[in-house]
C-alpha cells in the first residue's frame, strides 16, 4: 500500500503556514499613531507576532524606534529575536512566576498609555496561561493550583476560561479597562471553536458575557477542590468581569487575523490536489478525544468497504478526562483510540496534531505535536505486543507511540489554530 506519511505531514504544514504570523499579520496592522505604539502580546505566537510588528513599523513605516515599546509573553522555547519589544518566556499550560511577573509589567505598560498612543494587543493560543494576574486576595500558588485542577477536569476550554476570567486582573476585558485612554486594537490568532473573541486568551480586551455565578457553577459542576480564598473571590462582586457598555471599550477594535477554518481549508485543498475525495467534518469539533476517534474510525472503515479514496479532515479541540498517570494530549489520545479501532485495517493512515507543535506534554519545546498511525503502527503493535486499551486506561498515549515510533515532533510552529486531524483511506 502507498506510504502517506509525507502527505500527512504536508497537510499539517499547509495548515500551519496558513496561520503563521509572517504570512498573515502585517496586512492587518493599523497606521502609526501620533504618540507611541505600545505592543502587548501573549500566547504561543506572541514573539513571532511582535517581530512582524517591528519589521512593519520600524522598517516599512520608518517609525522612530523611541516610539515603539512593549512586551511579548510566550511559551518556553517560542521566542524569536526582537529589537524594541521585549520577549519573556513563561509557563504553559500551567502558569508560572514568569507569566505572573510579565502580566504585571504588561498591566503597568497599559496604564501609561495616553490618548495619542496605540495600545496594540496581539493574542494567540496560550495567552490565558502566559498572562496570570490573580485578583486581590488570591495568591499566585492558589491560582496555579486551580488552573491545574481545571485542566485535568475534562472541562472544555471555554468553561475553563470562564473561571479564569473571574479570578484575573487582566482577563475578561480588564486589560482594556487599564489602557482605556488609548486607542486599543487587538489582533488575534484564534485557537477556539467558533472563533469566540471572549475565549481567545480569555478576552482581555473585549466585553465578557459570563458571570461570577457562571464561574461558581462550573467549579461545582466539575467538583473542583479549591482554596477558601478562591471561593471568597468568586463570591466578591468586585471581581465581576467587564460587561458590554463599559467605557473601557469606547475606543477598541478587535480583529481575528487567522482562524482554524482557514487552516483546515488549506489542508482540504492539498488533499484534493493529491487525488482524494474529501469529507470535511468542520473546524470546530469538540468532545472527549477517545470517543470521537471511535466515530471517525467507523467513517474510515465504511469508506474503505465502499472502495472510496477518501480524506477525512477535522479541526477543533478535544478534551481528555484524566484517570491515569500516563503522558499525552488530546491528539495523541485520539490517535491511540483510532489505532485501537482500526488495528490491521489495510489502506488507512492518519495524523492528529496540534498546530502549535505541542500536544499536552510538560510544557517543553521538545514535546510531541501529536502522532501518526498506519500499517507500521499496527506492525509495531503485533511485534511488541502493544495493547492500546491498556495505554488508554492509563492516559499514556505518549508511552504507546514512543514505543511504536509514531510520535510527531515538529518543534514550536509559532502559531496556534487548534488541532488538525486527517484520516486517509485508500481505495483497496
From TrEMBL:
Domain MOFRL-associated residue range list: 8-234
One GO term describing the cellular component: cytoplasm
InterPro entries: GK-like_C_sf, GK_N_sf, MOFRL, MOFRL_assoc_dom, MOFRL_protein
Keyword match Ligase: no
GO molecular function, one term: glycerate kinase activity
Keywords: Kinase, Transferase
MOFRL domain boundaries: 311-419
Superkingdom to which the source organism belongs: Bacteria
Official protein name in the record: Glycerate kinase
Lineage: Bacteria, Pseudomonadati, Pseudomonadota, Alphaproteobacteria, Hyphomicrobiales
Amino acid at each position: 500500500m502507498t506510504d502517506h506519511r509525507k502527505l500527512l505531514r504536508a497537510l499539517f504544514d499547509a495548515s500551519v503556514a496558513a496561520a503563521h504570523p509572517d504570512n498573515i499579520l502585517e496586512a492587518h496592522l493599523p497606521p502609526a499613531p501620533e504618540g507611541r505604539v505600545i505592543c502587548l502580546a501573549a500566547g504561543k505566537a506572541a514573539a513571532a507576532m511582535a517581530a512582524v510588528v517591528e519589521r512593519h513599523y520600524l522598517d516599512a513605516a520608518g517609525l522612530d524606534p523611541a516610539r515603539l515599546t512593549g512586551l511579548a509573553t510566550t511559551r518556553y522555547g517560542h521566542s524569536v529575536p526582537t529589537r524594541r519589544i521585549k520577549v519573556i518566556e513563561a509557563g504553559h499550560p500551567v502558569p508560572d512566576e514568569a507569566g505572573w511577573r510579565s502580566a504585571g509589567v504588561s498591566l503597568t505598560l497599559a496604564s501609561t498609555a495616553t490618548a495619542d498612543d496605540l495600545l496594540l494587543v496581539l493574542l494567540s493560543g496560550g495567552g490565558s496561561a502566559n498572562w496570570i494576574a490573580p485578583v486581590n486576595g488570591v495568591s499566585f500558588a492558589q491560582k496555579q493550583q486551580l488552573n491545574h485542577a481545571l485542566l485535568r477536569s475534562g472541562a472544555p476550554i471555554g468553561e475553563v476560561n470562564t473561571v479564569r476570567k473571574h479570578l484575573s486582573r487582566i482577563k475578561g476585558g480588564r486589560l482594556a479597562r487599564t489602557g482605556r485612554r488609548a486607542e486599543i486594537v487587538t489582533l488575534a490568532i484564534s485557537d477556539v471553536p467558533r472563533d469566540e473573541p471572549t475565549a481567545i486568551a480569555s478576552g482581555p480586551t473585549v466585553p465578557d458575557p459570563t458571570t461570577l455565578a457562571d464561574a461558581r457553577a462550573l467549579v461545582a459542576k466539575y467538583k473542583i477542590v479549591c482554596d477558601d480564598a478562591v471561593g471568597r473571590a468568586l463570591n466578591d462582586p468586585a471581581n465581576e468581569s467587564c460587561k458590554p457598555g463599559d467605557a473601557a471599550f469606547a475606543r477598541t477594535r478587535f480583529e481575528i487575523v487567522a482562524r482554524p477554518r482557514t487552516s483546515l481549508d488549506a489542508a482540504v485543498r492539498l488533499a484534493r490536489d493529491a487525488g482524494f475525495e474529501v469529507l470535511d467534518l468542520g473546524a470546530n469539533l469538540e468532545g472527549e478525544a477517545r470517543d470521537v476517534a471511535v466515530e471517525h474510525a467507523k467513517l474510515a472503515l465504511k469508506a474503505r468497504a465502499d472502495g472510496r479514496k477518501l480524506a477525512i479532515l477535522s479541526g477543533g479541540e478535544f478534551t481528555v478526562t484524566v484517570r491515569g498517570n500516563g503522558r499525552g494530549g488530546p491528539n495523541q489520545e485520539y490517535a491511540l483510540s483510532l489505532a485501537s479501532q482500526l488495528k490491521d485495517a489495510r489502506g488507512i493512515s492518519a495524523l492528529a496534531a496540534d498546530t502549535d507543535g505541542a500536544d499536552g506534554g510538560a510544557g517543553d519545546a521538545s514535546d510531541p505535536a501529536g502522532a501518526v498511525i498506519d500499517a507500521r503502527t499496527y506492525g509495531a503493535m503485533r511485534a511488541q505486543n502493544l495493547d492500546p486499551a491498556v495505554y488508554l486506561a492509563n492516559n499514556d498515549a505518549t508511552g504507546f507511540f514512543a514505543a511504536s515510533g509514531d510520535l510527531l515532533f515538529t518543534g514550536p510552529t509559532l502559531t496556534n489554530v487548534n488541532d488538525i486531524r486527517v484520516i486517509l483511506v485508500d481505495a483497496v
